[in-house]
Amino acid sequence: MEGSINGSLNLIGYGLSAIGGGIGVGLVFAAYINGVARQPEAQRVLQPIAFLGLALTEALAILGLVFAFVLK
């Protein structure tokens, strides 16, 4: 067929999940920095929560990568 496009939309889905992960990590650390700037003594409490948020957000991006290759 002339003018047809061959390919897979899985990689586009992974790209979208990577963008979502980047935005999520940015929001997590923006909230962490904002919280520490307002109350520096709360850093010890907020830091593990920020790293947990980082891990969960990146896990979703990694799942997007896995699904992009599994469903290809």
Automatic annotation (TrEMBL):
GO terms for molecular function: hydrolase activity; lipid binding; proton-transporting ATP synthase activity, rotational mechanism. Pfam families: ATP-synt_C. InterPro entries: ATP_synth_csu_bac/chlpt (IPR005953), ATP_synth_F0_csu (IPR000454), ATP_synth_F0_csu_DDCD_BS (IPR020537), ATP_synth_F0_csu_sf (IPR038662), ATPase_proteolipid_c-like_dom (IPR002379), F/V-ATP_Csub_sf (IPR035921). It is a multi-pass membrane protein. Residues 13-71 form the V-ATPase proteolipid subunit C-like domain. The record marks E58 as: Reversibly protonated during proton transport. Belongs to the ATPase C chain family. F(1)F(0) ATP synthase produces ATP from ADP in the presence of a proton or sodium gradient. F-type ATPases consist of two structural domains, F(1) containing the extramembraneous catalytic core and F(0) containing the membrane proton channel, linked together by a central stalk and a peripheral stalk. During catalysis, ATP synthesis in the catalytic domain of F(1) is coupled via a rotary mechanism of the central stalk subunits to proton translocation. This is ATP synthase subunit c. It comes from Arthrobacter globiformis. The gene is atpE.
